[in-house]
From TrEMBL:
Coiled-coil annotated spans: none
Annotated signal sequence range: none
PANTHER family membership: LACI-RELATED TRANSCRIPTIONAL REPRESSOR, LACTOSE OPERON REPRESSOR
Name of this chain's protein: DNA-binding LacI/PurR family transcriptional regulator
Length: 333
């Protein structure tokens, strides 16, 4: 008990006597200090006293699929900062292969009595994945926001980048440069944002025979793009910047130059894409605006406001750098 008092007091910056008054429900402590002590208990992993468990902790779960893709740490920074401004502490939960699953994290967050959960890049975006843990959150009426496209039956507010506009921008850019054989490297076939990009690609006259699906990684992009290179594409649109970097590597392994022989477009505009060789042309997700909107929707739910289970679509931006250029045939005309 003494150790717990000391750790919580140090975390909050108050005396052990103040912590003791909060834990024993005694008066003489401001609401702000009381809330800070209870939040510190949650963060440090201590159980709240029984009489103090009725209110939810001012903790919010932030569930991400990974941290290797730079877009996810960047998003976590935006959401964490916006939550802090609203008086909440984010609890970062990152899935690991063969380790803690998304469903496990949901169980853990429910045990910690979090105030809400923000998901980014979760299984809600995969049609063939298990969705039982989302249904559990819905049953518990826990405030929840999903970032980017979800399967149809999940009844939560969503904040998404407009994948259709992203694909249209990328394809229009390559066609303006004279590229006629344009391919796509997308995520898995059941991945909803990839499906949206593919639908737009085909609606705009893109060749479905020049589309490859793969896992979201540098290696996946390399393998998928290598197959497209053998089919003679001169431009490739990718569903993430990592896939685009894998595509650049595949082109070079085949003895081709980027953008001299093949133009490559990514998606996200994650960190350091202006420092790659060549600097990557990509479609930027407005993660600052999306992250703040996700937090606003979540806090509104926590405050008992009625928030429709609609999808807010944010406009992407084409960022032209040096990985795209005029097609050779067009350049020679």
């Amino acid at each position: 008990m003494t150790r717990r008092l000391a750790e919580v007091a140090k975390k909050v910056g108050v005396s052990e006597a103040t912590v003791s008054r909060v834990l024993n429900g005694k008066p003489g402590v401001s609401d702000a200090t009381r809330e800070a002590v209870l939040t510190a208990l949650d963060v440090l992993g201590y159980e709240r006293p029984t009489q103090l468990r009725g209110d939810r902790a001012r903790l919010v779960g932030l569930v991400l699929p990974e941290l290797q893709n730079p877009i996810f740490p960047a998003f976590a920074e935006v959401v964490g900062g916006a939550l802090a401004q609203q008086g909440f502490t984010s609890v970062l939960c990152t899935r690991t292969v063969g380790g803690v699953s998304e469903a496990d994290y949901v169980d853990l967050l429910l045990q910690q009595q979090v105030s809400g959960v923000v998901f980014a890049g979760g299984f809600y975006a995969q049609a063939d994945a298990a969705h039982g843990h989302y249904e559990l959150l819905h049953e518990r009426k826990l405030p929840t926001v999903l970032v980017n496209a979800a399967v149809q039956h999940l009844d939560f507010p969503q904040v998404s980048c407009d994948d259709a506009v992203a694909a249209e921008m990328a394809l229009a850019h390559l066609r303006a440069l004279g590229h006629e054989r344009v391919g796509m490297v997308l995520g898995p076939k059941d991945h909803m944002p990839s499906r949206r990009k593919l639908e737009t690609f085909q609606a705009q006259g893109g060749d479905p025979g020049l589309v490859e699906h793969t896992m979201f990684s540098l290696e996946g992009g390399h393998a998928a793009a290598a197959r497209l290179v053998r089919r003679g594409v001169t431009g490739v649109i990718c569903a993430s910047d990592l896939l685009a970097l894998g595509t650049v590597r595949a082109a070079r392994r085949a003895g081709l130059a980027v953008p001299g022989d093949i133009s490559v477009i990514g998606f996200d505009d994650s960190a350091l894409m202006n420092c790659t060789d060549p600097p990557l042309t990509t479609v930027r997700q407005p993660i600052d605006a999306m992250g703040r909107a996700a937090v606003d929707l979540l806090v509104a739910q926590i405050d008992k406001a009625v928030v429709p289970a609609d999808e807010l679509l944010f406009e992407p931006e084409l960022v032209v750098r040096a990985s795209t250029a005029r097609a050779r045939a067009a350049a020679q005309d």
